[in-house]
Amino acid sequence: MKKKIGAITIGQSPRVDVTGEMKDILGKNIEILEAGALDGISKEEITQFVPQEGDFVLVSRLRDGSSVKFGERYILPRLQECVTRLENEGAEVIVFICTGKFPATFQSSKILLYPYTILHAVVPRLSWRSHIGVINPDSDQVKQCIETWGKDVETVEAVTGSPYGDFQEVLDAAQALKEKDVDVIVMDCIGYTVKMKQAVQEITGKPVILARTLLARVIREMLD
User: CATH 3.40.50.920: does it fit domain 3-116+213-223?
Assistant: First the structure.
């Protein structure tokens, strides 16, 4: 019998752009159940979720392939609904397919995995000079990136390049980090792909950590 994991996107499900590459690592014995915080909400309604002062800024993908930016506060109650639904559907582990920082307030009898926690536990220990590079989707995320990663390392080089836009944005971000001579690079959004990671590695010559594949490897280690 296949083991079930619940995958919650802060955007709209299904996230076929993410789960395909995760399945390559998870293997055939794991079934992914999906739920999205913005499921059932129109794009027009989402445009009202404008980040306010002090909000954690999030960027995600809609079902039509477009991307949206919004404040975290608007989706927190809906995320709890996603947790409850996936738990009721039989998920053994529930993962957030988003690298944003969420409050530890969600209720579940199952293990909840946050890419943010995993990344911040691993990446700083890979940087011998405590000097990392971070690629973010949106310029509005740079300040919060420096603040959050700055708690774990001494120097943070934050650049932007959306995984949902022109591929050239990612290439330009990699070139900017190449000039900074960082120890390791983290692609700080679940939307970045294996192809994007490979391109950043080729340009910079540095180790690159990709959120979606690191998350999948942790899940497989837990359930194998």
Answer: no
